[in-house]
Automatic annotation (TrEMBL):
Residues 1-20 are annotated as: Disordered. The keyword Hydrolase applies. The lineage of its organism: Bacteria, Bacillati, Actinomycetota, Actinomycetes, Micrococcales. Keywords: Hydrolase. This is XTP/dITP diphosphohydrolase. The keyword Hydrolase applies. Residues 37-111 form the NTP pyrophosphohydrolase MazG-like domain. Residues 10-20 have a biased composition (Basic and acidic residues). GO terms for molecular function: ITP diphosphatase activity. It comes from the Bacteria. It is an enzyme of class 3 (hydrolase). CDD domains: NTP-PPase_MazG_Nterm (cd11528). Its EC number is 3.6.1.66.
């Protein structure tokens, strides 16, 4: 540790740099942190992400600032672990540089002279840039994290399925009363969960199993079978 303490004088003028250097010190000097792996951190990352969501939906501005900091700490922690990898190290500066390059590339209407005057036009640029980046993907379903909660996963898969010409859930929707607001949608979802509980069904498992069938439909459509 330098004579100036755990962070340098320059870091005091740059709070993000100070946070990164604090994390580095913790990784190097805390016996618990020294043993932590990327996999070990996953439960903490999930928890901190949900705490940010809770702060957005129910908390104060102070709560949100604190929880965003805790989530940032997870990013810094993963980066500090990665920096010590013997075969393919990278640090928080590499993470930040990769992020900046991606965001500049995906916003040509901001940085490269393209034009987007509506949110829909912005999405056209975003999706075109993303498609160019992911040329090796063979399915619209590639890249969807399967660890997402079932409802969030369903919304993602339904959107991707539509891009492949598969209208997921159309049969069920045809016979159902269509909610006219998010509040009514919440009521409808809660009612379905109540039915599942009464019948002894696992609502999460039921949705995930249905999603597997949708995925199979999408991949069949993509293969031209």
């Amino acid at each position: 540790m330098s004579e100036e303490g755990p962070v340098s004088a320059e870091s005091h003028r740059d709070p993000l740099r100070a946070a990164a250097e604090t994390m580095r010190e913790v990784r190097e000097r805390c016996v618990w942190s020294q043993q932590i792996t990327h996999r070990d951190l996953v439960p903490y990352l999930i928890e901190e992400s949900h705490e940010v969501i809770d702060a957005v939906e129910n908390g104060t501005r102070d709560d949100l600032r604190e929880e965003l900091g805790d989530l940032l700490w997870q990013v810094l922690f993963h980066s500090a672990i990665a920096a010590q990898d013997a075969d393919d190290p990278f640090d928080i500066d590499d993470v930040a540089a990769t992020l900046t390059e991606k965001m500049v590339r995906r916003h040509p209407h901001v940085f490269a002279g393209e034009v987007a005057t509506t949110p829909e036009e912005v999405l056209v640029h975003w999706n075109a840039a993303k498609a160019a980046e992911k040329r090796t993907r063979r399915s619209v379903l590639d890249g969807i994290p399967r660890g997402m909660p079932a409802l969030a996963l369903a919304q993602k898969i339904v959107g991707r399925a539509a891009g492949a010409g598969v209208v997921a859930g159309a049969d069920a929707a045809a016979g159902a009363v269509r909610p006219s607001s998010e509040t009514e949608l919440g009521d409808a979802l809660l009612a379905l969960v109540a039915v599942a509980r009464a019948e002894g069904w696992d609502a999460e498992r039921a949705l995930r199993e249905r999603l597997r069938a949708v995925e199979a439909e999408v991949r069949e459509a993509e293969s031209g079978a």
